[in-house]
Amino acid sequence: MPLEALDLSTEAGADQEFLYTLNFGPQHPATHTTLRLILTLDGETIVKAVPDIGYLHSGFEKLGEDLDFNQYVTIVDRMNYISPVANEIAWHHTVEKLLGIEITPRCKYIRTILAELARISDHLLCVGAAALDLGGLTAFLYAFNEREKIYNIIEQASGQRFHPSFTRVGGLMNDVTDDWVKLIRVFTNSFPKVHADVVRLLNRNKIFIDRTKGIGTLTKEEAINMSCTGPIARSAGVVRDLRKDEPYLAYGELAGSFKVACSKGGDCLARYLVRMEEMVQSVNIIKAAVENLPSGPVNLHTEDKLNIPDKAATYRSIEGLIQHFELFMWNRRFETPVNEVYGAHETANGELGFYLVSDGSAKAWRARTRPPSFIHFAIFPHLIEGHQISDIPAVLGSLNIIAAELDR
Predict the structure, then answer these.
(1) How far, in Å, CA of 129 to CA of 32, rounded?
(2) Which residues of the chain have pLDDT under 50?
(3) Contact criterion met (CB below 8 Å) for 116 and 74
(4) Which stretches make up the NADH-quinone oxidoreductase subunit D domain (predicted)?
């Protein structure tokens, strides 16, 4: 990477000081994505770090003003592409809040299961990649093997592995099958062993502990003042989780099946430990949700005709055919109140929120995202100052920055 001398001159009589600029990224193995850090160095010590974003800008929020509330689900998929179904659930939660509708009990439980699978998938990548950056290749392979199983579950439900686009306003693209439930049971039964293997590989690994303990420390007060959420905040002692504090979906009914994972360390090691414990709690939620999965429809059928009719109704009844025709040819899908609303979910990286302004049409007048990665990347300079260049992968890996969430 190019090195450029910043200031080699000093006043007469003063100690000579050498400061250099190092461009870390945007194409760098340790950043995992298109991130750029402009580092000011005193030898190997980082004096200053300036994050430079914008290399993956896609106009996601502007697209929200051009696509209707169901079409936009394909775009929110691409924001945090490590756990896309969680983005979908949060987006349609906000739209349903705007419309004042409540989804069916079965849909609530299925969305809860999918949200927790997405959390596990996201944490597995974060932990596995962080271990890889610090020399732990085996843990990375174990983690990604489990992610493939989650992809199988997503594919079984939606037909797509990576960007499922599975949720709809008032429901889901389709109901799940008994085979889907069996896949989940197999996963929840096998996952604890893999989790234990990763714990044995990393928790007492001297290199991993030395590279993470005391590195990138964040205090509770700093976490609150810097608007941190999710594992970043909880690892610093902030006991806040929207699933408990502001229950949504089926979390209110499943509150007794999980605990909020917290720590007081505030360093890279604490963030790793919180994520590892959260995966255990997510498995508990999934097990409880599967065993209590209600029967009934997954889509909310109202007089407003929010949902696309079933194929059987479209092909075999004149009412279904007309409804399908109106929805797609004339876009008579939504009559929204002229209002503004904010909805947020507790995703793997923290509070993912969507702010909507509606003008009464079938699409948002303004769609704004509150992405956790954007907030957490802003604290990176505070965490890394005074550390060594070799500590950058440890701190970045513990924050789990997703570039598409930064740039939008």
Answers:
(1) 8
(2) 1-16
(3) no
(4) 133-408
Residue 335, pLDDT score: 74
**Count of positions (residues) in the chain:** 408
Residues 30 and 33: their CA atoms lie apart, in Å, by 8
pLDDT for position 8: 37
Q: Can you tell me the distance from the alpha carbon of 219 to that of 225, in angstroms, rounded to the nearest whole number?
A: 10
Determine the CATH number of domain 60-407: 1.10.645.10
The structural domains of the chain, with segments of one domain joined by +, span 3-52, 60-407
Rounded Cα distance, 126 and 212, in Å: 14
Cα dihedral 223→229→230→234 (10° resolution) = 30
- CB contact at 8 A, 148 and 328: no
Q: What's 34's DSSP letter?
A: S
Task: Give the separation between CA 368 and CA 342, rounded to whole angstroms.
Answer: 9
What is the residue-wise DSSP string for 107-155? HHHHHHHHHHHHHHHHHHHHHHHHHHHTT-HHHHHHHHHHHHHHHHHHH
Contacts 24+ apart (CB under 8 A), 321-328: none
The per-residue pLDDT for 259 is 92
Those residues whose C-beta lies under 8 Å from the C-beta of residue 207, and which sit 6 or more positions away, are: 134, 135
- Compute the CA torsion angle 403, 58, 144, 392 (nearest 10 deg): -10
DSSP 341-359: EEEEEEETTEEEEEEEE--
Closest CA to 330 of 318, 338, 322: 322
Show the DSSP H helices in 203-247 as ranges: 206-212, 220-225, 230-234, 242-245
CB 385 within 8 A of CB 46: yes
User: Any residues with CB less than 8 A from the CB of 14 and at least 6 apart, and which?
Assistant: none
Residue 54: Cβ within 10 Å count: 11
Task: Report the alpha-carbon distance of residue 232 to residue 194 in Å, rounded.
Answer: 24
Task: Give the CA distances from residue 268 to residues 25, 219, 290, in Å, rounded to whole numbers and listed in that order.
Answer: 21, 12, 33
